[in-house]
Amino acid sequence: MSDDQDMMLELIKEHASKVMSAVPWAQALGLQLTGIEKGRAFARVPWREDLVGNPETGVIHGGVLTALLDNLCGVCINTVLTEPKSMATLDLRIDYMRPAEKGRDILAEAECYHVTRNVAFTHAWAYHETREEVIATAAGTFALNDISRWASGNEAVEMVSKILGNKS
Amino acid sequence: MTARLKEVQALLERTPFARYLGMRCEMQDDEMIAILPFQDKFIGNRAINALHGGCTGAFLELTAMAGVFLQSDMPRPPKPINITIDYLRSAKGGEDLYATAIVHKLGRRMASVRAEAWQGEREKPVTALQAHFLVPQDS
What's the CATH fold of domain B2-134? Predict the structure, then answer.
């Protein structure tokens, strides 16, 4: 457990509100980051009429969950890196366990369970209130690239990059 | 096929999230092509001008669903069981997305379908999706 890793985590926490607001599609869908720990990230998406996939039932479309889980997996990887890296989703698998209920917030949680120099492995869950009421699960694999190739619109992570860069 | 395409289009028009995306479907040489005209809100990374993976993923899931619906006579749309998305290349902001779906199997209960999205060159897909759908039983 290095100091750099803790510093990345602390800085991402400090600027948590910017982590998703800097991403237009996350902003458009109303994704909210609600918590960060080492290796984990939590988020919420409130129910909205225009996100509905089935007008008869009012169920939120799976595509909203795709964005939510993909984005949250990316955020949780940042909490375990010792230096900022660029990140690209390689693949994302989503299993739809049960439909989300009309009018209810969807919560989500992502976990980065293994990371190598080039690849990060994640799991994620979308649910109502608790993980007992799981809506969808996800497995995502991400390619990590060196900071030299890195460019991101993510202000919080850019700030971490600057501070860590200045330090060394 | 043309009559059924009208039903696919009507389905997309009454699906709020498909309207929010602004996608549409057309027939080109006996093939259904889904089109997603670019909007600023689709961006996932401003600095490298890339679309959000969740946006291309949603577009492909709807394309796959439309593909299954088109090739069947089911009264209601199929429900997704699972999807696997391969991100092959970065999808660029400012350019429209196109996609097609190939239905590998349409059984009585399950459908297996692949959808691919591209921007400039069709031979260079940006994202591919493999999905399983549950076929509605009350037909």
Answer: Thiol Ester Dehydrase; Chain A (3.10.129)
Q: Look at residue B134 and tell me whether its pLDDT is greater than 90.
A: yes
Q: Of B118, B112, B116, B117, nearest to B131 (Cα)?
A: B112
Beta bridge pairs of residue A114: A121
Cβ of A23 within 8 Å of Cβ of B43? The answer is yes
Partner-chain contact A24 B80, CB within 8 Å: no
Separation CA B135–CA A102 (nearest Å): 22
Chain B residue closest in CA terms to A91: B86
Show the domains of chain A with their CATH numbers.
Answer: 3-167 (3.10.129.10)
Beta strands in B18-126 (DSSP E): 24-28, 31-36, 43-45, 50-51, 79-87, 97-106, 110-118
Assigned token pair, A143? 């390619």
Residue B111 C-alpha, separation from nearest chain A C-alpha, in angstroms: 15
Kindly state the tokens that stand for B134: 């549950």
pTM to 2 decimal places:
0.91
A–B CB contacts, 8 A cutoff, strictly below: 134
* pLDDT reading at A32 higher than 60: yes
User: What pLDDT does residue A111 have?
Assistant: 98
Q: Which of B70, B68, B55, B74 has the alpha carbon at shortest distance from B131?
A: B68
| Cβ-Cβ contacts under 8 Å, B18 against chain A | 61
